[in-house]
Amino acid sequence: MINPAYKDKMVVVEGSYAVAHSAKTCHPNVISAYPITPQTHIVENLAQFIADGEIPNCEYLNVESEFSAISSLIGAAAVGARTYSATTSQGLLLMHEALFNASGMRFPIIMTIANRAVSAPINIWNDHQDSISQRDTGWIQLYVEDVQEASDTLPQIYKIAEDNEIMLPGMVCMDGFILSHVYEPVVLLEQNLVDNFLPSFHPENMLDPEDPKTFGAFATPDTYEEFRYLQEQAMQKALPKIEAVAKEFEEVFGRFHGGLVDGYMIEDAEIVIMSMGSVLGTVKDVVDQYRAKGEKIGVLKVRSFRPFPKEQIIESIQNAHAVVVLDKNISIGTNEGALFSETKSCLYNSKVRIPLVGYTLGHGGRDIRIESIVKVIEGTKAAAKAGIMVESQFLDLKEELL
Amino acid sequence: MTKVAPKMYLSSGHSGCAGCCDAFAAKFTLMGAGPNCIVVNPTGCLEVMSTPFPLSSWKVPWIHSLFENGGAVASGVEAALKALGKKNDTKVIAIGGDGSTMDIGIGAISGAFERGHDFTYICMDNEAYMNTGIQRSSGTPYDASTTTSPAGKFSFGNPRPKKNMPAIIAAHGSPYVATTSIGFPRDMIRKVKKAIEIVGPTYIHTHSPCTTGWGFDTSKTLEIAKLAVETGLWPMYDMEYGEITQVRRIKDPKPVEEYLRTQKRFKHLFTMEGGEEEIQKIQDTADWNIKHYGLK
Amino acid sequence: MTTEASQDSTICPEISKNDHETIESKVTCCSVCKPGSTLKNKTGGWRNFRPVYNYEKCTKCGICEIVCPDMSVKPREDGFFEHDYDYCKGCGICANECPEDAIGMILEKK
Description:
The complex is a heterotrimer.
Chain A: E1 11-14, H1 15-25, E2 30-33, H2 40-51, E3 59-62, H3 66-78, E4 83-87, H4 89-104, E5 110-115, H5 129-132, E6 140-143, H6 147-161, E7 170-175, E8 183-186, H7 191-197, E9 214-215, H8 224-253, E10 261-264, E11 271-275, H9 279-292, E12 297-302, E13 304-306, H10 310-317, E14 322-327, H11 338-348, E15 356-360, H12 370-386, E16 392-394
Parallel strand pairs in A: 2-3, 2-4, 4-5, 5-7, 6-7, 11-12, 11-14, 14-15, 15-16
Antiparallel strand pairs in A: 1-8, 6-13, 10-12
Chain B: H1 21-33, E1 37-40, H2 45-50, E2 62-63, H3 70-83, E3 91-97, H4 98-103, H5 106-115, E4 120-125, E5 151-152, E6 155-156, H6 165-170, E7 176-181, H7 185-197, E8 202-207, H8 211-215, H9 221-230, E9 237-240, E10 243-247, H10 256-260, H11 275-292
Parallel strand pairs in B: 1-2, 1-3, 3-4, 4-8, 7-8
Antiparallel strand pairs in B: 5-6, 7-9, 9-10
Helix pairs in contact in B: 1-7, 3-5
Chain C: H1 4-11, E1 49-53, H2 63-66, E2 73-75, E3 81-83, H3 93-97, E4 103-107
Antiparallel strand pairs in C: 1-4, 2-3
């Protein structure tokens, strides 16, 4: 929620500009760029900042592929540089192998993902299939709801990722086009406040001829498992850090977008709608309409998908009569979206026994209409009363096309 | 006479085969480069044999990321040194095998050379994927038998000539591209020294006979490397901005047969019908090199 | 005459051939290894043939040191060289490349 006091600071800019501006204020040392729609405006804006001399001590690399974009940042991070890139869809998939590598070597590389559908069929519009399919790579994933949050989350994720106890790469996932290309009033991050909030990056280990360490050694079965364990531990340490950093951000900037999760009208909610990203705006509008009628509907925004905030989710939804999860992705072969599957799984060994249903929706940028959200809520109300009829399904499927 | 012992920045105890060519390539590279460098080493024998966690044979800062991204990781290392004001005299060196250089990593290397990073890429060319068990690469020479291009009743082995990687790099406008061989340590050390001192992306392609993959006695690694040069099959030259400025002359070229006979990978050429014609084709390649590069 | 050990002391003082306890074998977050620490691996056990100098023939040219892929030929104070059998794998390249034929290869007794 934006403090009215900040209103006179707001300017109307494109989402990509706000994100690029935010990245600039974090003072990256190496930015790698490769064009891909709808992310391109972010790296174009950064290129202009570089051309205008606005980012000190920074090298901007026009690489020849997304694979080299992430790989060059691995090299840069190993020397102790703060690094940034942005990508989406096919670009993120091309990075896949190196994403594991960046996390395994514990380099806190930060990227903005302008979420987009993946091919085939080729489609440039928004859904979450690209970043959700990177969920096991060991990257922190924070999903944002609006442009202000996309911008505000960058310094937060640097602070989380670069923590000595964490040292994991992270991606801020914002909906492509819906947020990257929208013009919205936002507060552009003030440099002096970012400087107060985000300490400079001083990793413990660096490539340095004065202290010649070896990075990326070969691990046998004797040690490999321990590396994975330590990565998982770092993710668990990121859970409280994400919460703490969101609060620190609020203290400095006066804005709070949620920690691991964020509830809206959830305290007394009988029906809870869970989701990630910009669709939450539409959902909240619909919830307002229901609330106006006196119906107890609430929203749980999941901001951190990795690490997955099991406890916070259970706590937030435990008193609901039924929960519906909206996923802009699908794990083909399960007929479920990832957030739905994972929410279900974290309830299994808990004492919470409530009906949980899922919808996979908005694929390839299909518009999510208010009427559809109403349909979802009505369906969930029915499940609360009479039990689950369909556990998970596609929303707004055009039967006439099949 | 007081001699200064050459400084070794690669340590004993690595697990390369006895007579390993990659150990030579790394040793000579570091003898040329000295301690003030950062080494990027894509996946391959050298990486595996020199860094079994928690141990390392490297006495210079070293990083391995993946198989196909050596050029890009080196780009990032160089860019970060510049951005952090640490570049000074620190040299950035990437050293990879023929697989990671000429096949899977060529895109990232092309990008790094096109962008003009100040680094030196060294290709240790042992003419096949040795780390995975001697599979054909685009560096494998004509008629060499590998596990994925085996000689057989209807095959003389690899059906294609070697890719001319130095020419590809030179086409990027690199200020310095050189071929060398581990059989000529002084030549290689000189070229490494020269390459790292030049500002911009430079390239050294070092011919590296592999005892295990080529099938010869462990004591012959350098002898066979020399034979490749002495037959004209491996021309050694310096190239500046695409122009050859210096070649290693061979006064009295030896017949390629002398080189081929030393290695199991060419053994079939001496037993199969039609082998003589094949050997003649390889001789033609050497003759062409001698003429084209002006080796005589 | 500078020995390798004294040169190394400036780069990686914590590791020497007989000081393996300092090598951290614990798995740490960034999996970094200490420089030159493979000295812990005594690869001499691989050897089937042992190189032996004939110092009467040796001219101290130093080629053997250059052509050892295992960095196991070490200069001595007197200008001659010696093999470090802890690491020598017995490849025989030094013997093969010696211009004076001053290195012989003898079968290891196991």
